[in-house]
Amino acid sequence: MELDMGWYVGILLGVVLIMKWGLKSVNIWIYERDLGKTKRALLPPGDFGWPFIGNMWSFLQAFKSSDPDSFISGFVHRFGSTGMYKSFMFGSPSIIVTTPEACRRVLCDDDAFKPGWPTATLELIGKKSFVAISYEDHKRLRKLTAAPVNGHESLSIYMQYIETKVETALEKWSQMGQIEFLTQLRKLTFQIIMYIFLSSESEDVMEALEKEYTTLNYGVRAMAINIPGFVYHAALKARKNLVTILQAAVSERRKKREAAQGMSKKDMLDALLDTEDENGKKLDDEEIIDTLVMYLNAGHESSGHITMWSTILLQSHPEYLKKAKEEQERIVKEMPPGQKGLTLREFRKMECLSKVIDETLRLVTFSLMTFREAKKDVDMKGYIIPKGWKVLLWFRSVHHNPEVYPQPKEFNPSRWDDFIPKAGTFLPFGAGSRLCPGNELAKLEIAIFLHHFLLNYKFERNNPTCPTIYLPHCRPKDNCLGRIIKISK
What domain of life (predicted)? Predict the structure, then answer.
């Protein structure tokens, strides 16, 4: 009887293993069968996961745990430190790239790679936004928006506005008692980007837009299940609401411009309405709205999160807090007599603060990955990336590489003393032709906030050991609940 039971268990176990193998082979059969024997042999090692969902379940499990890096470490444990792994992510056969050299090549080789964001993500961000358009269209729009966002003259103009808003916000928060620090910072950075793009300070419009963006962002890295009750379905509704609000703003601006011929430009929306190609063709409403959706989102989310992390990381490391504060005090003392407020001259002197910001960008890695697609078969590191396959550049692995950054999990701004990162090892804003066009503006916002915070305030968290959530972006579960306290002098 015991022998029979052993046979039954053995047979059952064998059936289960065969079924598992069969299920795990479905994606391989679908996506590798047309590659041919030679190409299949040159694919990086990896795992296509389960039918249709691929590796998304294990990805989401890892990033909803306290150890998000377990996703990649799982590949490394099973297949070795190859730096490239085949997978099935976001509905497509993909190659995950984790080394600086490979990331740099993919980002900079526009002949071999193009943007490869998942279709579900493009539905949220916009098919005519920066992340989706062709190289030529991207080049044209980037040229249009680079100077108004990142140019020296524009940054000088924005500084006064940003500084005023920061000082007002800090004073207000210090009187509010308990606040969600991250939530308030996101509102502040959203107000700033709204002013730059739409010259708007309407509380109602800003609150409506910011609320929809919060919902939209949760859907960007969720499974694309468009059924009521799922995150992605809610994100699509948020996208629709955003388009409605922005369409009204664009239509109203067009009417005002038609009624007042020759009116001067006052913000980025005017610049977008005026731009035209060599044939005199102007952007249509869909192109303008998708550009606004992307810029307004990217322009406040990253700045708000990195400002929060910089603040609490400094406060938890008193030695660096002391250095950063002393630098800001010295900068104020060295200001010319009669000067009111910061200028770009002072900003360029914030060497210690710049290292703090870079270290926060590295440690947090706000954008954990980005997407490309192979335009042709590409040989890389002895492997092949087939034409049409997605390439996931895993920035988190690059920034936490112990060979480049010793003790990578530690917050250590001093690591940037006399250290110039090699190409591909520091990618908080990407690289190549699609480098984030608002990188200087983001750093400026963060530096101005930290300048005034360090001089006049401190932050007391309710729960310093609060668990961290990693999707859609790295943040404390309680949104950094605490009190801003004004320092008496």
Answer: Eukaryota
**Structural domains for the chain:** 90-486 (1.10.630.10)
β-bridge pairing 383-385 and 378-380: antiparallel
The pLDDT tens digits for 228-239 are 988 999 999 999
d(CA 155, CA 357): 18
Residue 108 is assigned to a ligand binding site: no
Instruction: Tell me the C-alpha distance between 183 and 181, whole Å.
Output: 6
Angle between helices 285-315 and 318-333 (to 10 degrees): 110
Mean pLDDT computed over 275-302: 83
Comparing CA positions, the residue from 354, 458, 370, 455 lying closest to residue 414 is 354
Residue 396: pLDDT over 80? yes
Mean pLDDT of the chain: 89
Model confidence pLDDT, tens digit, residues 124-133: 888 888 777 7
Q: State the amino acid at position 418 in one-letter form.
A: D
Question: Quick check: 405 and 150 in contact, CB under 8 A?
Answer: no
Please, is 120 exposed, middle or buried when counting C-beta atoms within 10 Å of its C-beta (0-12, 13-18, 19+)?
buried
pLDDT digits (tens, 9 = 90+) for 312-330: 999 999 999 999 999 999 9
Residues of the chain above pLDDT 90, percent: 58
Phi first, then psi: give them for residue 375, nearest 5 degrees. Answer: -80, -15
pLDDT exceeds 60 at position 169: yes
> What is the pTM (predicted TM-score) of this model?
0.90
Task: Tell which residue, 59, 52, 133, 57, has the closest CA to residue 96.
Answer: 59
Pair 378, 442: CB distance under 8 Å: no
